[in-house]
Specification:
Blueprint (H helix, E strand, L loop, with lengths): L6 H6 L30 H11 L4 E5 L5 E5 H17 L7 E5 L4 H12 L3 E4 L6 H11 L1 E6 L4 H7 L8 E4 L16 E2 H6 L15 E6 L9 E5 H12 L11 E4 L6 H4 L1 H8 L2 E4 L6 H11 L3 E4 L1 H13 L9 E4 L6 H11 L2 E7 L6 E5 L10 H8 L4 E2 L4 E5 L14 E6 L16 E3 L2 E12 L5 E6 L4 E3 L2 E3 L1 H9 L4 E11 L3 E10 L7 H6 L13 E4 L13 H8 L8
Parallel strand pairs: 1-11, 3-4, 3-5, 4-8, 5-6, 6-7, 10-11, 10-12, 12-13, 13-14, 25-26
Antiparallel strand pairs: 1-2, 8-9, 14-15, 15-16, 17-18, 18-20, 19-20, 20-21, 22-23, 24-25
Helix pairs in contact: 2-3, 2-4, 2-10, 3-4, 8-10, 11-12
The structure holds adenosine monophosphate.
The site of adenosine monophosphate (AMP) has 21 residues, from strand 14, strand 20 and strand 21.
């Protein structure tokens, strides 16, 4: 007879009774811990690795002062240690928040490592926000130190007296470029702080769950919310985002993040580049097409990253000057949907692969990346392109599902659209000082509701059709604005397009297209609407087109649809 442990004993030993049937587990069986080292995942370890294994690798920056600065990971690590000592001397302790208002550059990178590495929290502020919003955010975060680029001196001078928690203001420049006079009392010079210390410093060890950095959501309604990353979440995010089916980062890459270091930590690239030992190139404030192209070519950039609006400027420059990219082979586009027409231009005309990615401040930010699976490589171009326009597959670590309005899980059939829920070790659990966790319970687990509406196909490719607040509800049916925008953007005369819900007497809401034309291009309403024929269901076709000189963009380069709705929501009222 087979020996069995009784159910009650199984429960006491936390053994599943079913698995016990017919087997003969010993009464001594119990879970065992692995016997591997417990080494906390700390941001300082990324820098230590870069220094030791890629010490000669370069970090190149176009400085705010105008010139090109060049040094190595070894120099970066030494200066970050000196800076950590200087911050400690200023009284910056564990958990203290250090704010930055700065472009992408080597000094900002030093702060990334010095602040987090010493156990304080790096808080990157977005200088494109309104001054009142900046003050609110710095106050909410209780920033003790504020480090900023020279170009932001007038901005900081204007708000300094309102920044109640800030004890030290640091201008990120050298003595020579310090202002003779300033309204900021006891303004410190960044290079003086570094010069005042040597680099004999050991990065402290602490719990990997300790907070490392802080970003506020770009929330268009209500106050922004603080997302507090940990060392563990940041290091895991770096591992995952560097994977071959994600951003495919390596020591052979030269990475130029156009995405600002104040926009979700430049999508984690300052960390993952150190992890893999890639060369880093920082553009400083020069984000126009001409300056970027110059750096791409001069520094042999292989990979870049940014929101679609940035690439419009770059492509316009490259096209008008009939230039080519001699080294860049891929670019990550995310933050908003990448129009397929932009992908085609990059790939077909310039041989640059577009890696379409989706993420959020709340996800550190990478959630999904659109890289093809093996069998798809052999598909005809049009079929491949249809996949590449999607936001892609989840990277390992991110679980996702879509749910309907009742919270029922929807099938992965590429058709059913619902709210996208995600979970994973680099997804926010609660907001800074938030009383309530934003998570929703589903199947006994907490999930983060992204506010995005998406489909997922049988192969796991997720496609964002809209933000839930931007969805157009026509006669009770949803119309996805992103599809409509992508079609308009494919028209050769269209520079930018945004589709919003306009109030309609019969259908509640109907799509209204707001468009800017390319310089010198001729395009009328009827011609543009005719362009939709055969491309989508007829009832999805926008009811009208408004041509404008400029479409309003927010602080991270995304279209401000709430502003457009305020302006044009009554455009269709009175039409049957
Ligand atoms: P943020 O937290 O400011 O980075 O904004 C995150 C939001 O940007 C997401 O919830 C999406 O609505 C949008 N987003 C990010 N990446 C994409 C993408 N590739 N396609 C469409 N929307 C995107």
């Amino acid at each position: 007879m087979k020996w069995q442990i009784p159910v009650a004993e199984c429960q006491a030993l936390a053994l599943p009774f079913e698995n016990n049937r017919g087997t003969t587990p010993s009464r001594r069986d119990k879970p065992m811990n692995g016997q591997m080292m417990q080494q906390p995942l700390l941001i300082s370890s990324l820098l230590r690795h870069a220094e030791r294994h890629h010490g000669e690798q370069q970090v190149v920056s176009r400085r705010v002062e105008g010139d090109i600065h060049r040094y190595s990971y070894r120099d970066l690590a030494a200066r970050a240690r000196r800076l950590a000592k200087a911050l400690a001397a200023l009284g910056v302790g564990q958990g203290a928040r250090v704010g930055t208002i700065a472009w992408n550059g080597y000094r900002h990178l030093e702060l990334y490592y010095a602040v987090s590495g010493s156990g304080a929290v790096l808080h990157t502020l977005n200088p494109r926000l309104h001054a009142d919003q900046l003050v609110w955010i710095a106050d909410h975060a209780e920033d003790q130190v504020l480090c900023f680029d020279k170009g932001f001196l007038p901005l900081v001078e204007a708000v300094a007296s309102r920044l109640a928690s800030v004890r030290h203001f640091v201008l990120m420049t050298d003595r020579e470029h310090m202002p003779a006079q300033t309204a900021i009392p006891k303004l410190l010079c960044y290079e003086d702080l570094i010069d005042g210390q040597d680099d004999r410093f050991e990065w402290p060890e602490f719990d990997e769950n300790q907070a490392s950095s802080l970003c506020y959501t770009s929330g268009t309604t209500g106050h922004p919310k603080g997302v507090l990353y940990s060392h563990r979440s940041t290091v895991l995010h770096s591992y995952a985002s560097a994977l071959p089916d994600a951003l495919k980062l390596s020591a052979r890459d030269t990475i130029l993040p156009v995405v600002p270091m104040f926009h979700v930590n430049a999508w984690g690239l300052p960390y993952s580049a150190c992890m893999v030992g890639a060369k880093l190139v920082f553009p400083g404030p020069g984000l126009d097409g001409t300056s970027l192209y110059e750096l791409f070519e001069a520094e042999g950039v292989t990979l870049s990253a940014g929101v679609p609006t940035v690439w419009q400027g770059l492509l316009a420059h490259v096209q008008s000057q009939e230039l080519r990219f001699s080294t860049m082979n891929r670019t990550i586009i995310g933050g908003s949907a990448c129009p397929p027409a932009m992908m085609e231009t990059f790939e077909d005309r310039y041989g640059v692969q577009v890696i379409h990615a989706w993420g959020m401040t709340e996800l550190s930010p990478v959630g999904t990346v659109c890289t093809l699976k093996g069998e798809q490589l052999a598909w005809p171009k049009s079929r491949r392109r249809a996949i590449q326009a999607k936001q892609g597959r989840s990277v390992f670590g991110i679980d996702m599902k879509i749910v309907d309005e009742q919270g029922e899980a929807l099938p992965w059939d590429g058709q059913s659209a619902g709210e996208l829920l995600v979970r994973g070790p680099w997804v926010v659990e609660r907001y800074l000082k938030g009383e309530k966790s934003p998570l929703v319970m589903h199947g006994g687990q907490g999930w983060f509701p992204t506010g995005d509406v998406a489909t997922i196909d049988a192969q796991g490719f997720m496609n964002i059709t809209d933000r839930s607040k931007d969805v157009i509800k026509s006669g009770g049916e949803w119309i996805g604005s992103i599809d409509l925008e992508n079609i308009a953007m494919a028209h050769p005369a269209v520079a930018m397009a945004a589709c919003i819900a306009a109030r309609h007497p019969r259908w509640d809401e109907r799509p209204l297209l707001v468009v800017t034309r390319k310089p010198g291009a001729q395009l009328g309403r009827d011609e543009l609407l005719a362009f939709y024929e055969g491309k989508i269901a007829k009832w999805w076709t926008p009811d009208d087109v408004v041509f404008v000189d400029a479409i309003p963009l927010g602080a991270t380069g995304k279209v401000l649809k709430n502003q457009l709705r305020e302006q044009f929501q009554d455009q269709l009222v009175g039409r049957a």
